[in-house]
Amino acid sequence: MKDSFNTGEPRPRPTAGISNEGDSPNSESILGGLGKATWSEEEGVSYEVALNVINEVVGAYSGLIGREEASPSPNATKIAAWRQAKIAWAQRQRDLSPADPQAVQAVRQEAADLLRTLSDHG
């Protein structure tokens, strides 16, 4: 392969830790240090659903904030409360673990209920 940024000599290929050969001493799995999951496939899917519904909650709060800020006379108290709630849900998302299926289910239910309530505001 010709390198157009120098004199036309081919670029050397990187070799440290990178290999297309599975048995090469330089090959290293990027997943090697993760270990085995302690949750079932069903629990993993439930966790992903929880993350998605939390994203919807955060998005709903963003929409409410944006509409209120664009209104002729924005209510600063509402905006501040919605921002705090948005931050709290984002933190809950970071704290949630697929290894805690009860917490995952509780968050899913709470977020779904909250979305119904928030949709009444928008």
Give a description of the structure.
This protein has 122 residues and is mainly α. The chain has a domain at 41-121. Helix content is 58%, strand content 0%. The protein has three helices and no strands. Helix 1 runs parallel beside helix 3. The longest helix has 30 residues, at 41-70. The model is unreliable at 1-6 and 13-21 (pLDDT under 50).
Q: Can you tag this structure with a few keywords?
A:
elongated; 0% strand; single chain; 58% helix
- Summed over residues and divided by their number, the pLDDT gives a mean of 82
Shape: elongated
What's the helix-strand series? HHH
Total number of β-strand segments? 0
Q: Strand fraction band?
A: under 5%
- Rounded to the nearest angstrom, the distance between the terminal CA atoms is 56 Å
Task: Tell me roughly what share of residues is in helical segments.
Answer: 55-70%
Structural class by sheet pairing and helices? mainly alpha
Question: How is the main sheet built?
Answer: none
Work out the helix count: 3
**Rg (C-alpha, Å):** 24 Å
Instruction: Give start-end ranges of low-pLDDT stretches.
Output: 1-6, 13-21
Task: Compile the SSE list and pairings.
Layout: H1 41-70, H2 76-95, H3 101-121
Helix pairs in contact: 1-2, 1-3
Please summarize what this structure is.
By secondary structure, the protein is an all-alpha fold.
